[in-house]
Amino acid sequence: GDMQIDIVSVFPDYFEVLNVGLFGKAIERGLLDVHTHDLRSWTHDVHHSVDDTPVGGGAGMVMKPEVWAECLDDLLGFEPPSITAASNETQHSNASAPISNNTTDEPAATSENALPKPVLIFPNPSAPLFTQRDATELSHASHLLFGCGRYEGYDARIPCYYRAQGVDVREYSIGDYVLNGGEVAVSVMLEAITRLIPGFMGNPDSIAEESYTGSNALLEHYQYTKPAIWRGMGVPEVLTSGDHGKVDRFRRDEAIAHTDQVRPDLIRQMDCKALDKADRKT
Ligand code: ADE
């Protein structure tokens, strides 16, 4: 089915990039229903300010909760709470709790148990890492709503509040480096998610065999195409043998050796059952 995607940002023009390539085609074909929104259109002051100085001091600015809440209430179809003036003494219960997406105990969604309610996603360099597993799960959602933070971040009560309202809220980092804002991270996550939607790719087989998919998290084996000899360099002879069994074994051995060399963390994470008898010799 088709997926609704809403993206909120102070740089909505950035997402023109989504009209390029397979993603653009998927929008044209009606597979993806994408709407970008300018966060500043939910401000009421002349300066359209979306940020303020951090409570407790320090450098940089923090995105204000009021503006985000007006925007997210609108996009989620929520009524703003009728009692807006909560007591100043009311302590926010878990704004300082570690970020948890609360998905670890749940089985990954399949097309049979698609995520029916909107998923609200905030890119955040201090959040858990976004992985292929998350991409697979989110490719079954019917509605994704991304909130791009800028500056030094956003008020921690925003995700907390919507989580308390029963919204499926996720915060993800795309890697251990710092970007200027969430826009690039959202485009990375969107590309990883949407290419897994049935009908998005021309050739769905190309998904099944890739790195980070399936029970084995091995990196892919090296690939070669013609010519057989290029600038004096040949290709591994077994690949031209026509013996599919030998080719598969060679590729798997090579994938294990390569993964062990560049990403030993992936080998350590692997389910032992995913390694066969012949693998153990590698
Ligand atoms: N915002 C800034 N840096 C980020 C990162 N690495 N991942 C997600 N969002 C970010």
UniProtKB/TrEMBL annotation:
<feature type="compositionally biased region" description="Polar residues">
    <location>
        <begin position="84"/>
        <end position="111"/>
    </location>
</feature>
<keyword id="KW-0963">Cytoplasm</keyword>
<comment type="function">
    <text>Specifically methylates guanosine-37 in various tRNAs.</text>
</comment>
<keyword id="KW-0949">S-adenosyl-L-methionine</keyword>
<comment type="similarity">
    <text>Belongs to the RNA methyltransferase TrmD family.</text>
</comment>
<keyword id="KW-0808">Transferase</keyword>
<feature type="domain" description="tRNA methyltransferase TRMD/TRM10-type">
    <location>
        <begin position="3"/>
        <end position="80"/>
    </location>
</feature>
<keyword id="KW-0489">Methyltransferase</keyword>
<dbReference type="GO" id="GO:0002939">
    <property type="term" value="P:tRNA N1-guanine methylation"/>
</dbReference>
<dbReference type="GO" id="GO:0005829">
    <property type="term" value="C:cytosol"/>
</dbReference>
<feature type="region of interest" description="Disordered">
    <location>
        <begin position="83"/>
        <end position="111"/>
    </location>
</feature>
<protein>
    <recommendedName>
        <fullName>tRNA (guanine-N(1)-)-methyltransferase</fullName>
        <ecNumber>2.1.1.228</ecNumber>
    </recommendedName>
</protein>
<feature type="binding site">
    <location>
        <begin position="174"/>
        <end position="179"/>
    </location>
    <ligand>
        <name>S-adenosyl-L-methionine</name>
    </ligand>
</feature>
<keyword id="KW-0819">tRNA processing</keyword>
<feature type="binding site">
    <location>
        <position position="149"/>
    </location>
    <ligand>
        <name>S-adenosyl-L-methionine</name>
    </ligand>
</feature>
<feature type="domain" description="tRNA methyltransferase TRMD/TRM10-type">
    <location>
        <begin position="113"/>
        <end position="269"/>
    </location>
</feature>
<comment type="subunit">
    <text>Homodimer.</text>
</comment>
<dbReference type="GO" id="GO:0052906">
    <property type="term" value="F:tRNA (guanine(37)-N1)-methyltransferase activity"/>
</dbReference>
